[in-house]
Amino acid sequence: MNPNLSDELLIRQMIERWAVWRDAGDWARFATVWHPQGVMMATWFQGPYADFIRVTQEGWAKGVSILHFLGGSAIEVNGDRAIAQTKMTISQRGQVEGENGPVLCDVVCTGRFYDFVVREDGQWQLLHRQPIYEKDRIDPVDPTAVLRLDSQALATFPEGYRHLAYIQTRIGYQVKLDMPILKGPEVQALYARGGRWLAGAPIER
Asked: Which pairs with CB-CB distance under 8 Å and at least 24 residues apart come from 196-202?
């Protein structure tokens, strides 16, 4: 039997609580999954987890709708450190340009959460979360609506999160353009950084 199985289950429990409590707006419990030095990296925000909670609350107040759904996990444990990769989707709703004016759309981005996880005082906590964005699409909520996206603007965003970045910039967010996607130097650098940290090196932010 895998001696790390109980740790893997506890880490997976933490990851599931992140998604449920964040999407439910249960901010007090959501904060408990994070390490005190926890950092969240997202297309639209990069920084300490407490700031992530604050700006997410501000977005909620403005009607920003971002939800998450989880798939399977692959978790590597080394003592009090672990790297967890979890399949996920990010779903965001917002308005973009249409043939007859603004059109309400859903963007769905498929990828992985790549998590640096540490055991602190006997509890597994999230130290650093870096999503990997694999592919996305945009669909009008009304299937009869015709979109008129700015093709030049769309082409400036990375392939793995092109439509997600498009809709986020349309509501005023500044999107980070060098996030890891399915292939390429950014994701390879992330794997290497995760491997070094898991082996005992200091975390590289």
From this structure: 197/81, 197/83, 197/116, 198/76, 198/78, 198/81, 198/82, 198/83, 199/78, 200/78, 200/81
Sign of CA dihedral 141, 169, 87, 26: negative
Enumerate the domain spans of the chain: 5-193
CB contact set of 156 (below 8 Å; sequence gap of 6+): 177
pLDDT digits (tens, 9 = 90+) for 48-85: 999 999 999 999 999 998 999 999 999 999 999 999 99
81-96 sheet: strands from edge to edge: 46-48, 34-41, 123-140, 103-120, 81-96, 65-78
Give me the residue label for tokens 């979109």.
147
What are the backbone dihedrals phi and psi of residue 170, each rounded to the nearest 5 degrees, phi first? -70, -20
Enter the pTM of the model. 0.95
Architecture in CATH for domain 5-193: Roll (3.10)
Task: Report which residue type is found at 81.
Answer: R
